[in-house]
Amino acid sequence: xxxxxxxxxxxxxQMGNDKSIKCEQNLGHDTMYxxxxxxxxxxxxxxxxxxxxxxxxxxxxxxxxxKSPDKAHLNLHINSLELGDSAVYFCAxxxxxxxxxxxxxxxxxxxx
Amino acid sequence: EDQVTQSPEALRLQEGxxxxxxxxxxxSGLRGLFWYRQDPGKGPEFLFTLYSAxxxxxxxxxxxxxxxxxSFLHITAxxxxxxxxxxxxxxxxxxxxIFGTGTLLAVQP
Lengths: 112, 109
Fold this sequence. Notes:
The complex is a heterodimer of chains A (112) and B (109). Chain A is mostly beta strands and 112 residues long. Helix content of chain A is 0%, strand content 56%.
């Protein structure tokens, strides 16, 4: 029933490791997003895909790489994790880039 | 630089005590303004979209209004279940959403 689902919900790992977060939406939306929410609750866009094409690519270290295998999935791979990557990462989707976005419940990433 | 500012940062109300949250913005081009509600441990939940100055939207105890420089979220006779963080976001012409830092609302019974 979940509209936008992310896995895992929690991710605890060591500095230098590589990890992936998966996102799936069952709303039939064409546009998907990744956001980072820091400890002060500030939500900032990282990437957006529309029909599997990258349309927003903010100033994000190239250790972060999004991948969209199809319109319903947008995964985020992070290489060489750093302490500053600790945050909550949210996936979202919308019918098109102008429509309201629907968010998943986030993945809390903690780097030891 | 595009900027969205919300005030107050935190607001404590008694049940039934009406109030307003503010979202002011300076952006290069406004496509729309969105209000979201976020509960602890959850993702933001969409409430309203406003597109032009003078527009108003209502849902239960909430009413959102928009001017050329700011938006207000009015909460009438709030209940404890209205407690949450309320986020404002502005969509600019690049289709990017720029979020404010939110207002943490606590409604006490």
